Fold this sequence. Notes:
Elements (H helix, E strand, L loop, with lengths): L4 H15 L5 H12 L2 H17 L5 H12 L8 H13 L4 H9 L11 E2 L6 E4 L5 E4 L4 E6 L3 E8 L1 E5 L7 E6 L2 E14 L4 E14 L4 E5 L2 E5 L8 E2 L11 E8 H8 L6 E4 L7 E7 L3 H11 L2 E7 L2 E6 L1
Parallel strand pairs: 5-7, 14-17
Antiparallel strand pairs: 1-4, 2-3, 3-6, 4-5, 6-8, 7-8, 8-9, 9-10, 9-11, 11-12, 13-15, 16-17
Amino acid sequence: MADDFDTLQQAAEWFVRLQDEDCNEQTLTAWRRWLDSDDAHRKAWEQVEEIQASIGVITSQTHSEPAVNALRSNHQQSLNRRSLMRSFILLAGASSLGYLGWTHRLRPSLRLPLTADIQTATGEIREHSLPDGGRVWLNTASTLNVNFTPQQRLLEFIDGEVLIETGKDPQRRFLVNLHEGQLEALGTAFSIRRLSQGLRLQVHQGKVAIRTRHGHQRAVEAGQQTHFDATAINPVSPVASHAVSWTDRILLADDTRLQDLITELARYHQGYMGVAPAVADLKVTGTFPVDNIEQALSMLNHTLPVSVGRLSDWWITIEAR
């Protein structure tokens, strides 16, 4: 995201203004002047486009060029309200890479999201029974394939976060394929989360063996966690007792930075949730529902010196009161 919270907020405010019924050529010209005045403005605008595209209608790439031309032309004498808004929505709904390009760029692991065996939408948490009697929980925006055969039990973890409890079946190995390598579970319960770089493995029962794509191996015991990618496995550290509280649809904060809590809550929100730097380091303790973001924000509003602002349903900011 943009380094400058205020600049990103300005970009969002422009986005909302350009969708207003009173939007006209004068507003469009002012937006264009703001956009061109600083590279930081352009970067922030691109991020707002990306956020909007992630929750909006997928717009064909073939429509984006006419939209760009309509919005950026300095030679058009007039644009009526309908054509102006149609052009803007097309541009906002499809950034320079288009929606699919945005998804691929931010989440390179997403290969088969439309054909996966089990998947959850943003804000959804789902429990699923496995053929061996085990269970799997998918956290928000997660994707998983299941391929059990008479010879082995195989899952393919694509994106998001999952908690897996394996069934008892000593005759068949339990494997999880990843872009970064493979996991083998040994009578266990464990969770996997895809991060911006690599994966986090937390073992809650039993043991899990990691084998990376580049040949690195490590066994992780119950109560341990590690981060790894295709090339390396980090040292293990203890797993927090509330690591999988999300399966109960709650987040537990224990003297947690407000920024860190909002980063987690934002995973369950369709859109953007940001924290002003002035309050980012405030400490929070409490239990917050992930399936009721409004209640979680209200709790923060009543217990901390902050206010919750909204430019739209999909743009929420927490600032000093």
